[in-house]
Amino acid sequence: MDEHIVILVIAMIVLLYGYISKGLSRLNISGPMVFTGLGLLLSPLGLHITQVEIDAEFVTVIVELALVLVLFADAALLDLKLLRSSWQVPARLLFIGLPITVVLGTAAAWWIFPDEPMTTLLLLALLLTPTDAALGKAVVSDPKVPKWVRSSINVESGLNDGIIFPMLLTVVALILSDTEAGQQQHWIVYVAQQIGVGAIVGTVVGYAGTKLLVWADKRNLAEASYQNLIPIALAVLAFYLAETLSGNGFIAAFFAGLYAGNTYEKTRNHIEDFAESEGELFVLISFFVFGLAFVPLILAYITWEVVLYALLSLTVLRMVPVVLSLIGTELDLSTKLFIAWFGPRGIASILYVLIVVHEIGSMQGFATLYAVVTVTVLLSILAHGLSAQPLANRYARRHRLTFPEASSQDKE
C-alpha cells in the first residue's frame, strides 16, 4: 500500500514542480533540493505520511533506472571532437585526481574511524568518489561558462562512475570472500567478467541500435515522435542484457550511449531531448526517494565524526586532488578551484549504497558507512544547488577577457 501512496505523491509533486520550476530556479533552488526536501517532509521525520524501506525493490529499480539513463546520456552527449582537442583536463581529473581522491578518502576515513576494517574504509572512499553533474546543472548548462570547462566537468562526471564501479565490486567481493587463494581468484575473474562483458554488450547494443535507426531513417520508416523513445530502450536493453550475461549493466549503458551519441547526429539530438525530460524526471524521483527512505534510516547513526567526514569529502578530499592533478596546466587558480568545487555527490553514491546493501545482505556492521554517504549527499544537494548559478555567474564575469568565446555565447 505504501508504494501506491508514494507513486501518487510523486505524481503530485512532479505536477506542482512543473508549474513553479522556473520561479524556483531564479531563487537558486534546484530540482534535487525540492524533491529531497519534500521526501523528508513526507517521511517519518516530517508528516509521516508514508514509510519506505531502503531495500524495497521499487526503490532499487527507480534509482537503478535513473543511473542507467544518466550514464547513457552523459556518454552520448560527450563531445568527442572537443574532447580530442581539450582532453588534458578531464584526463588529469580521471587518471590523477581520482586515484588521489580514493587514497586521501581512505586515509581520512582511517583517521576519523580507526576501529573500522580497512576494506570498509576503502569502500567508503569509493562510494563518495563519483561525482554527479546533475547537482550542478546550472554550471554545465550555462553558456556563459566556457564550453571546455563545462565539458571537462561533464566528462569527469560521466566517466568516473564507470571507473569506480569495478573497484567497488572488487572491494565488496573481498569483504564477502575468505582469504584463501581460490576465493581471491574467484573475485578477480568476477570483476574481469563484469567489465569485459559489460563493455562488449554495450558496444554491440549501441552499434546495432544506431545502425538500425540509420537504416529506418533512410527508408522513412520511423515516426519522429517515437524516435525519442529509442534512447531509453537502448539504455535499458544494454543494462539488462549485460546483467543477464553476467556483465555489468552500468558499464554497458555507458558504452552503448558513447557509441549511439557519437556516430549519428540525429540519435544524439533525440538523446539530448530525452535527457532533458524523461531522464531528468527519473533523477528527481530518485532524490525524492532519497529524502523519503535514506535519511530517516540513518538519523540514529549521525555523529560528529560522520558530519566531519562528509564536510571533508565535499571540500578538502575533493578539491585538493583536483588542484594537484591540474598542476602544470595553464589554468589559473580560480579555474582550478571552480572545477574542484563542482564535484557533487548524488545518484551514483546512492545507487552504490543500494548495491552494497544488496550484495552484503544487511546494514549490520556498515551503519556508519551508510550514514556518511547519506549525510554527504544531503549536504551536497544543498551546497551545490545553492552555489551553482551564483558561482557560474561570478566565474563567467571574471573570465570574459580570458575566454572570449564565453562572452559571445552569452550575447547569443
From TrEMBL:
It is found in: Cell membrane. The keyword tRNA-binding does not apply. The keyword Signal does not apply. InterPro entries: Cation/H_exchanger_TM, Na+/solute_symporter_sf. Pfam families: Na_H_Exchanger. Keywords: Antiport, Cell membrane, Ion transport, Membrane, Transmembrane, Transmembrane helix, Transport. It comes from the Bacteria. The chain crosses the membrane at residues 6-21, 33-52, 58-80, 92-113, 158-176, 188-209, 229-260, 281-302, 308-327, 339-357, 369-388. It is a multi-pass membrane protein. Signal peptide: none annotated. Residues 14-393 form the Cation/H+ exchanger transmembrane domain. PANTHER family: CNH1P, NA(+)/H(+) ANTIPORTER 1. This is Sodium:proton antiporter.
